[in-house]
Amino acid sequence: MKKVVTLGEIMLRLSTQTGELLNQANALSVHYGGAEANVAVSLAHFGYQAYFVSKVPVNPLGIAAERHLKSHGVHTEFLLKGGERLGTYYVEAGVGNRSSQVTYDRKYSSFSQLLAEEINIESILEGASLIHITGITLALSPALRELILLIFKKAKEMGVLVSFDFNYRAKLWSQQEASNAIKPLMPYMDICFCGELDAVQLLGIVPADGSLPQEERLKYYYQKIKELYPNIRWFSSTFRTVISATSNRLQGNLFMNEQLYQSKVYQLEPIVERIGGGDSYAAGILRGILEELPARQIISFATAASALKHTIQGDCNSFSKEEVIQFAENESGVITR
Amino acid sequence: MKKVVTLGEIMLRLSTQTGELLNQANALSVHYGGAEANVAVSLAHFGYQAYFVSKVPVNPLGIAAERHLKSHGVHTEFLLKGGERLGTYYVEAGVGNRSSQVTYDRKYSSFSQLLAEEINIESILEGASLIHITGITLALSPALRELILLIFKKAKEMGVLVSFDFNYRAKLWSQQEASNAIKPLMPYMDICFCGELDAVQLLGIVPADGSLPQEERLKYYYQKIKELYPNIRWFSSTFRTVISATSNRLQGNLFMNEQLYQSKVYQLEPIVERIGGGDSYAAGILRGILEELPARQIISFATAASALKHTIQGDCNSFSKEEVIQFAENESGVITR
Amino acid sequence: MKKVVTLGEIMLRLSTQTGELLNQANALSVHYGGAEANVAVSLAHFGYQAYFVSKVPVNPLGIAAERHLKSHGVHTEFLLKGGERLGTYYVEAGVGNRSSQVTYDRKYSSFSQLLAEEINIESILEGASLIHITGITLALSPALRELILLIFKKAKEMGVLVSFDFNYRAKLWSQQEASNAIKPLMPYMDICFCGELDAVQLLGIVPADGSLPQEERLKYYYQKIKELYPNIRWFSSTFRTVISATSNRLQGNLFMNEQLYQSKVYQLEPIVERIGGGDSYAAGILRGILEELPARQIISFATAASALKHTIQGDCNSFSKEEVIQFAENESGVITR
Amino acid sequence: MKKVVTLGEIMLRLSTQTGELLNQANALSVHYGGAEANVAVSLAHFGYQAYFVSKVPVNPLGIAAERHLKSHGVHTEFLLKGGERLGTYYVEAGVGNRSSQVTYDRKYSSFSQLLAEEINIESILEGASLIHITGITLALSPALRELILLIFKKAKEMGVLVSFDFNYRAKLWSQQEASNAIKPLMPYMDICFCGELDAVQLLGIVPADGSLPQEERLKYYYQKIKELYPNIRWFSSTFRTVISATSNRLQGNLFMNEQLYQSKVYQLEPIVERIGGGDSYAAGILRGILEELPARQIISFATAASALKHTIQGDCNSFSKEEVIQFAENESGVITR
Amino acid sequence: MKKVVTLGEIMLRLSTQTGELLNQANALSVHYGGAEANVAVSLAHFGYQAYFVSKVPVNPLGIAAERHLKSHGVHTEFLLKGGERLGTYYVEAGVGNRSSQVTYDRKYSSFSQLLAEEINIESILEGASLIHITGITLALSPALRELILLIFKKAKEMGVLVSFDFNYRAKLWSQQEASNAIKPLMPYMDICFCGELDAVQLLGIVPADGSLPQEERLKYYYQKIKELYPNIRWFSSTFRTVISATSNRLQGNLFMNEQLYQSKVYQLEPIVERIGGGDSYAAGILRGILEELPARQIISFATAASALKHTIQGDCNSFSKEEVIQFAENESGVITR
Amino acid sequence: MKKVVTLGEIMLRLSTQTGELLNQANALSVHYGGAEANVAVSLAHFGYQAYFVSKVPVNPLGIAAERHLKSHGVHTEFLLKGGERLGTYYVEAGVGNRSSQVTYDRKYSSFSQLLAEEINIESILEGASLIHITGITLALSPALRELILLIFKKAKEMGVLVSFDFNYRAKLWSQQEASNAIKPLMPYMDICFCGELDAVQLLGIVPADGSLPQEERLKYYYQKIKELYPNIRWFSSTFRTVISATSNRLQGNLFMNEQLYQSKVYQLEPIVERIGGGDSYAAGILRGILEELPARQIISFATAASALKHTIQGDCNSFSKEEVIQFAENESGVITR
């Protein structure tokens, strides 16, 4: 079993029931998750030795977050304990044409106040095949930006695959800040999850001709980025058409060997839970790359994993590799009995 | 903050869970609502001093109904206490092609036995900008019909805008009874919520040519009614296409200044709760009129308020003016984070 | 009230909530049901003296299963007590493009170990108009196969209508086993529920020309089977198009008097619970035959009963004859109040 | 199996969760029950053919009430359908030193408006061993008082045992009204459930010397009543010491053959549900009398049945005769595994 | 109706179910409360115009906190909007000999960062009869300490009664800090809630002779404090004996006119919710003082209000004055029906 | 961290809510547990590398059972996959004087059909400090008895401490069977959990003088067993006084170095969940022995761990060593805030 490492924040999520606003709720559902934590969970279910690096407070919420990770088989040896609080956020789940609303209460969290020197970079990368981080982590503090740069450099040295997901969140930082933080990391990446908006707004690529089909535009952006950062071997993203909060269409894109590969288009309806859909997708791509699968298999697997995730509650995918493959081949809705 | 007044019954609603019949239920959800009460709640959330006039029994259910109103900021100074019982109704929520079933148990309620002399009409109208009442209230007793007539006359004298929603309920009275009760009120109305069926069946307007488009027919009816009652300055209604109990299409209509204005068509799917959708719409129209907005803004706001209501549980809309406007401009289902 | 008899297994069903897998669940919903038990329940609600013949253990689960039957008015005089356990199964309800997953834990159940001699065949058939059994019962043991053959023979002698539903379940037995068990029963049937796959795979009918429309193919199969078993007067089945686990299309087919009659096509969306949909349909057909209704009424009633079942939780239909008829005539989703 | 008959009202009960007031509740638990209905349920579980005579409305609540009865094996052939509504009541369950609060909403119920002529007295008593009625039924209307008198007279003629439970409820009628209604029934009773307060306040017995022990006083009252109505062969009641809403002590008393027999004293703590405790006791006494058991066995069984009832939710006892006997012999709290 | 004012923090409370730890919970109950907010709620239910002064963030949680206050009739005109977050805390409810555990997450809350200049002291005190504040508010920031001092001084000037509850929380500050903050406020108080530990540890009173009975010791402390601060006319506190988290004994103490008055001792068992018990008590004392009741009535009412609070969920008492009086006179646990 | 190993069955437990019987339940709580699994969980929380050896089926319930173990940090490398089913049992939780009722459905489980050769004994014991097994495992099959004997012998050889808990269950086997199975294991034990009844009924020790105090009798039995099996260095058991299902008294006993040590007596009231109380105790004893603590500390810690367990839901203790110690020192019920 290969070792894979992700680093980021794990948060407590408190959500209302469908059709209920926070001011109506007298109970909230409890989940734990975060972009990188969710990727670690998926990779653990796909059969990897997944390690999650983070920091949680020494209180019952920190214990609960760790227990969540362990229940999915994620290794928590690098989960630091300390700091003031566990990042928290509240979700009023959208339905129909009302969108989900996220209320963040994550400032001053233990992880956001992590110092670079608390992490022993060599030991977390020791023996690892891959390290994965997202833009959310960069948004949290200058110290984290500095830490990630150090990690990426060391990973490069040690021959560990470097994966980065832009995951831009307008509620956390400005495009300018994001751009400044991400650009210095680009030369170290092997795998890059980003889309059209990221290319234009964060990397400053000249916009493609708007009359081109969506996939042509995406191809153009990936080629342009690759010209700047030839170290990047895989680019990936999804096309998501939002019909309503309950109904989406989803297609995966993978650019490798100078070619764009696309999955089938999934009709996601009804959506049980959209949160974590992107992380599940990223984990699927990473698994395909680690297994050195052909491009079509990688993108088919990753998009199926994401589609499947939309049908269950919680932030993370607990389907095994086999279940995803079976679903990818035979998605239907027919009862098995 | 302008004072607005509504008068009607507030009831206890007991509903089954989705996909459950009353004979399967071992718990029922509790809500409090009623057409006029719901309008008061919406107007309170839109920033008005909303007063609700009614009567509830001196028991824990009466207290709970009052508490519901207060929690939404509705003033309860004119909520009388006494009588025998709180009107109650049971809802088996429809789903797909099975309709919702309402079982009324509202007879002998405190409000339905209210006497005209219990209400100090001058004091409730004192300083008010608007009074709103629906046909449901008229259906409950001759005494209430008499009371409403007195109120409408006095409102006219005092320069208070008079709004009336036909809200015809076949389970409560016959078309003939409704017609007899509503016609005498027509000369006092400024704002009238009614549709094609109301025009033909309750006001006796000669049916329009059935081959005309729906909006042409509606325009014809409003013009005809206005010929009879030139005092009415605003007519409004919705076109609702019922695809299933879970999926509707909704469009708002406003007739003013001799013109029919229509909102965009909302696709409501899935519908979390349809009850209160019309009241939310009416409150939206009233807010637009009170704010003296242009017709297009009135109808856009009102229909958005109604669409939004369909995505939450409970009888009433607790969205603020700002939230409705934002939704009207940008309804999508895209998660905000 | 006519007496009708069904015989089969009643099981405990434990299901997760929507969007939840078994490994996420900390509570499971409890239902009791089984193909023949569900048919008995429907027939009781349609106004028959329905008797259910089975065997349950002497423990609280056996008591609960009996209580379930009684609450729906099914007679339990022929419900034997004894054996080791109540058959159980777990359902992870499907949603969208993820199918429902059934995990059976029914081996060694009291019913599956029933011996033919435990049943007094004459007494259960005494005065009955109809006996109904499905292929699931045959799949459970050789002893049950032998018992059913004896019952069918005796029913024929006593002039009791014999109804059989193929209900093939790949998780329980092979096609060959099913074929061997069902063929000897064919000469005793009056009513036969089977479809294209059953005809080809279990009865060995030569496949129809695949380019023919679906209904023509079905007609061909029914004619072919009737050539072999002229005793069968009614054939029936449904066409179900699975768009997703949440959205299906359903149409009923009835072949009698050498003609194929088809119901309207129901759009089932969203589906609250699919389990029991077929049993509800079968009960509808049986009621129509017992009432000697015209073919169109039979098929319209049965398909409506099945459509209605999809909108409620639990294995069985608790709608009355009148409610089904009203729905069949006026299915819409419009709220009644 | 002997036939037994009870007649009374069955109501919908809506209760809050422990520690919750009605004005805090957003869901209410649903139960169906009533004094005589509960006795019928217990007797059905003890192995009798129990018939419950009443009237419920033709709506989903009436159906649900009937289904409740059937699920416990009570025969509903004499359950009339019609009238305006199902009697309803709300319970805020007490806890510790806060008492339960009952809010009745039972006026105008179908049963309370039942007319004597709707009941075919001969047919309900045909073949019965016992008829049981309580004072609550008398409190509901003059027509019901008249009906009960007719029933008691006919029962006497037909040799059916007549049982009456005073069950005085101050919220329903005055002591004077109760006294006037009950006295004419006394000459027809064989079994009478009443206590010290009933004897003094409703039957006008001269109070016993207050310094006597409680059981001596009770014996005195029973002797005095028997002097007036020598037809009564069994008297019974319980001594209940209320430490708090959660903790009671309970002892059963049976007076027969000129002697007072007392059960052991049960410590009931915590009490899950007190409602129905008395009905469960009465059913236990009736079963003992019908079985012609020795006095000590009667009173031991009845008090155990009542104690057991306090440990489960809902209005009625669903324990079998065997379970009650086992509990009576071996009450402990030790887990069996 | 007299105007009363309280000022403090209102927080979101998230609690586990009974017998569940945070690391086991997948749903949390939602309540809103805080010492001063709870007192305001109680006083509103007792019939006062209660105003609550605080600051909440502009997000759905701030809205929900305000809605909670309004639903209890508390005026929110002085509830400021702004800042970063709503103070939050988590409760693992204790049971038996396991204590409740509180996990605070209240740092950086909007209220804790309130500046003195944000409050218009004159306008909040205008026309008020009483202002009530607790030590928790002082613990939150120097700015709040300064603000409270200004408020107390101004209240004195304006003839508003000043009430202060020590409410010492070791998790928020040290005894030394508390002492430094509270002492300067003492000369302005009219009503002071404090106990033996407060007197010794925070006010530096020489400890009483430990062999004296508890009430003698308390009297001694109150006399000593009064020597130092003769302005204080009422002292109050409770004696609480903790048998277990589920079972307590409670007695109220009131010192006025140089005498100590004590209530009866309540046995609280089982305790539904202990949080808010002290606030309910304080509100009871304040109501008695405002009504100028005799000492015995004040202490009896306040202790009853607190006992009653322990029997319901949530932070605050929603019983009316009449309900508390009835309970005080007739606490029992006997069901009323 | 020391390695410890337990081997036994892990089952699915389905329980009703408090005050609810199985025939009333429409949802059941889900837990996973078993005597040896629970000990492993406790030891993992106490800081050991705990391994659980067992066999679960390849289905979602097997996955869920494994996930339960992992969430508590138990190593599942030796959890075999295969066989027919997961052992299941149903619990109707007792309350007051009604006992809990356990309905087993564990026959034919994967574990009960485990063959000795499926286990690699050397590898499970490799590097372990302790192996713990209970009598329940022996009861399940002859193959398991044989396996355990081989394991105990090998453990002795390898210097691994051998711990055995009699855990006699009358529903699983007779005293004679148990005696035959356990006696051959005695010579290999280092730690033995047994009580008076075990000594007399299973080991055939001559009964002690019944007039002796309970602790004297226990001492006598332990001395007698030690005479027969001098290899046993530690004996332990609890005295449990069952006042009701809700209220127990518990005291721990430890016999070592020829002396009997007893813990304080805990009053357990109310009991949230009794299941797993004994396993929690056993784990506490084992931890004390492994840490080579003084006898008084061992018994104090173990009994506190068990008392704490009774206050939470689920089969197993998730308190850390520190939490247990803090509770042992300071059990009270006082809220910490």
TrEMBL record, chains A, B, C, D, E, F:
Pfam families: PfkB. Keywords: Kinase, Transferase. InterPro entries: Carb_kinase_PfkB-like (IPR052700), PfkB_dom (IPR011611), Ribokinase-like (IPR029056). The keyword Kinase applies. Residues 1-318 form the Carbohydrate kinase PfkB domain. It comes from the Bacteria. Belongs to the carbohydrate kinase PfkB family. PANTHER family: 2-DEHYDRO-3-DEOXYGLUCONOKINASE_2-DEHYDRO-3-DEOXYGALACTONOKINASE, SUGAR KINASE. This is 2-dehydro-3-deoxygluconokinase. It comes from Neobacillus kokaensis. The lineage of its organism: Bacteria, Bacillati, Bacillota, Bacilli, Bacillales.
